[in-house]
Amino acid sequence: MPKARLGVALLLPAPVAAEVDGLRRAVGDGSVHRIPAHLTLVPPVNVAEARLCDALAVFRRAAAATRPLNLELGPPRTFLPDNPVLYLAVDGDVAEVHALRERVLRDPLARSTSWPFVPHVTVADSASPEVIEAAVVALGRYRAHVRIDRVHLLREGAGRVWEPIAEAPLRPPAVIGRGGLPVELSLTERLDPEAAEICEREEGAECPFAVTARRDEQVVGVASGAVRDGVAHLRILVVDAGQRRQGIGSHLLAAVESLAADEGCRSIVTDFALEDIAEAFLRSRGWTSVAPSPQFRRDLG
Known about the structure:
This protein has 301 residues and is of the alpha+beta class. The chain is built from seven helices and 16 strands. The chain has two domains: 3-169, Alpha-Beta Complex (Cyclic Phosphodiesterase, Chain: A); 174-299, Aminopeptidase (3-Layer(aba) Sandwich), CATH 3.40.630.30. Helices cover 26% and strands 37% of the residues.
């Protein structure tokens, strides 16, 4: 049975990620081009491809039960003599980091570990004791504050390169339609594998940001696109065929409109071919047709 090699981590945000990568290059870390700067929650674990959806569900539930983390990185430390690793110590919301790890370290992402969990950001793995000792002294004053508002699921690919395949905000998902047919909305920078699947099935497209609607942990709709030069381009708006006429499309569109307003966009335009039903739907929400036909537009503000 095919398996995916997965890991769960808190990726460091810019500009601290660039700073830490600079430290990694300075001490000769060989993985700097393969693994983004991060704090590991679940080290590499093999998960059957057929259970990827289960892993995503565990991952999302763990994130939904966690609040954003404020962490202080530094100073440099080492696990010598047990392990030749140079790392940045982690302080701040450490108890919450432990709690998040416990939530996500469950089947099928569960795995045994050789050492007690110590939250840290690796700077160099398998470095020589001389390099580690010199770095601890030279970088002794390094400190950085980071606010982590999401957790990432990564997958190992060719050349042992680790790339994020899904992200989950550290907060409960927005739930709309309470009392009727509730839908959860989550705003992310990328489509996770389940969301990408519905896009490929319905539209055959994929875009940088996405609003994903789920019901009972199943994807029921996706809206995605990109913001460019003060204009939000809506490239996908799809609802699962069995879930239509329940207001999901309206909720998705409202979330995109809110995102565009928050980003300071002047307008939103559609970048996909519309059916008559879709045109009527957009007109009912205040969108108008513009050239080149059949593009639709909604001005903001």
